[in-house]
Every structure is written in C-alpha cells, then in structure tokens.
C-alpha cells in the first residue's frame, strides 16, 4: 500500500497555482494521517515562491501568507533544487525562514523519488 | 492482484486523460487487477459533469466514465474545494459520483498499491 508521497513542482508561483496546490495537497494529506510521509520538492521556477522578498500583492495576487502558515503548522518538509535556486539568481539568505526547508542536489532528488512509494509532478 | 487509484487533473476533451484512463483501466482489469477509485482534482473536476451535449460524431466521455465506474465498481469522487471553485452543482454530477475533501483522496491512496496521476495539476 502507498504510505509515502513526493510532490514535485516546477512552475512559477504566478500564472499557475501549482505551487499553492502542491502545498495544499501535501499538508492536507499529512493532516489526515492515512499516510506516513508526504514531501514537496520545488524545482525550476517554483523556487521563486520561497523568496522572502516576494511581493504577490504587487501583481494583485492574493498574499501567500495563509499557505505559508499551513506549511509551517504541518511541519511539511520542502526541498529546493540547488541548481534551480542558482538559475533564479537566489541564494539561501534570500529564502524564507522555515525550519524544514532543505536545499538539495539532483542526486538527492533522485534518491527521494526512489524512496517514496509514489511521486508525481504537479 | 494490484490495487490502483487514478487521479485526474485535466479537463475533458482538451486533454485525453479520461480516454487514456479508461483504456488503461480496461487493460489493468484484464490482467486481474483492481481499480479502487478515480479522484478528480484541479480542473479535472469538470469530468464529473454528466449533463453535457455532444454530437453523434463525438464520444460521450461522461457516459463512458459512468459505464466504466459501474462496470468495475470503481468509486468516482471529485475534490470538494475545486467543485466549489467551478460552481458545478451536485445535480449535474455523473450518476453515483460524489464530492469529497482530501480525506477521500488520502483514503484511496492509502488503500492502493499504485496511484497514477493524469494531467498537469491544479
């Protein structure tokens, strides 16, 4: 039976709501408790979501505070692809302060995918 | 026997997720496995609408999906949040289909050996 899930998201937080939905789904599944583990990996443009200087209101987009709060309350483990971070021109000091935020390389991502019972790209 | 759950995140006709799901489902069952349920998520919830109008030359996807679920006793559920976003009324649902929260998805996943996602996410 499936007991662990890995959600992979690589879309920008603007123009598509995949980032929000991947967190909503992950935190929801964790909260229900049927599954042992649920993790999220941000790759590609999704890493912009974790930029502490992000200002969605400037684009008349709803603030991300609620989904961030949900992430914190559930202690969701969020992994960031190091290469995506580099491509985005960000470094770790520019990311939100979140205890379960882990920067990983491609090898670690492969390992996480292999370890999970199921994974899918959101 | 392997127990499968399908999650559909793509709307009908624009994408061929339901067509593939039905074809794959038939093949899976032919091999002696089971389809536990189908969970519609994101814009995939549009697949729950039963009262659509198609001409004679167009396949009736809700009808095909309905027959598939009845024939193989597969549960058909749609994400409650997304149903609310789309404004689809329960009176418009395919017969036997229901709306459920992430608890419904979690339950299906936890009771399945394999979960297959169709579509581009929320």
Written description of the protein model:
- The complex is a heterodimer of chains A (122) and B (122).
- With 122 residues, chain A is of the alpha/beta class.
- Chain A is built from four helices and five strands; from the N terminus they run βαβαβαβαβ.
- The longest helix of chain A has 15 residues, at 18-32.
- The mean pLDDT of chain A is 94.
- Chain B is of the alpha/beta class and 122 residues long.
- Chain B has a single domain (3-50, 59-118), classed as DsrEFH-like (Hypothetical Protein Ychn, Chain: A), CATH 3.40.1260.10.
- Chain B has four helices and five strands.
- In chain B, strands 4-3-2-1-5 form a five-stranded parallel β-sheet, with helices on both faces.
- In chain B, helix 1 (17-30) links the parallel strand 1 and strand 2 (34-40).
- The longest helix of chain B is centred in the first third of the chain and has 14 residues, at 17-30.
- The mean pLDDT of chain B is 94.
- At the A-B interface, helix 1 and strand 5 of A face helix 4 and strand 5 of B.
> What is the rounded Rg of chain B?
13 Å
Number of helices of chain B: 4
Count of helices of chain A? 4
Topology order of chain A in helix (H) and strand (E) letters? EHEHEHEHE
Name the CATH class of chain B. Answer: Alpha Beta
Query: Could you name the ranges of chain A where pLDDT drops below 50 across 5 or more consecutive residues?
Result: none
* Number of E strands of chain B: 5
**At CATH's second level, what is the architecture of chain A?**
3-Layer(aba) Sandwich
Q: Helical proportion of chain B?
A: 25-40%
Do you know the CATH topology of chain A? Hypothetical Protein Ychn, Chain: A
Brief overview:
The complex is a heterodimer of chains A (122) and B (122). Chain A is of the alpha/beta class and 122 residues long.
């Amino acid at each position: 039976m499936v007991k662990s899930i890995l959600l992979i998201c690589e879309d920008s937080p603007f123009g598509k709501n995949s980032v929000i939905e991947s967190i909503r789904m992950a935190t929801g599944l964790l909260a229900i408790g049927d599954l042992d583990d649920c993790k999220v990996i941000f790759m590609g443009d999704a890493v912009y979501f974790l930029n502490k200087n992000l200002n969605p209101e400037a684009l008349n987009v709803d603030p991300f505070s609620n989904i961030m709060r949900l992430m914190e309350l559930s202690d969701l483990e969020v992994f960031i692809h190091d290469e995506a971070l580099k491509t985005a021109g960000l470094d770790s000091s520019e990311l939100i302060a979140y205890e379960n935020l882990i920067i990983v390389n491609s090898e670690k991502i492969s390992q996480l995918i292999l370890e999970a019972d199921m994974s899918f790209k959101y | 026997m392997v127990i499968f759950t399908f999650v559909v995140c793509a709307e009908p006709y624009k994408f061929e997720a339901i067509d593939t799901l039905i074809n794959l489902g038939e093949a899976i069952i032919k091999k002696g496995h089971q389809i536990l349920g189908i969970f519609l998520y994101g814009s995939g919830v549009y697949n729950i609408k039963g009262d659509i109008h198609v001409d004679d030359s167009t396949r009736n996807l809700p009808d095909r999906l309905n027959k598939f679920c009845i024939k193989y006793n597969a549960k058909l559920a749609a994400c409650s949040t997304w149903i609310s976003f789309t404004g689809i009324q329960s009176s418009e649902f395919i017969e036997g289909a229901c709306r459920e929260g992430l608890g419904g998805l979690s339950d299906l996943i936890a009771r399945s050996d394999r979960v297959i996602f169709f579509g581009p996410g929320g």
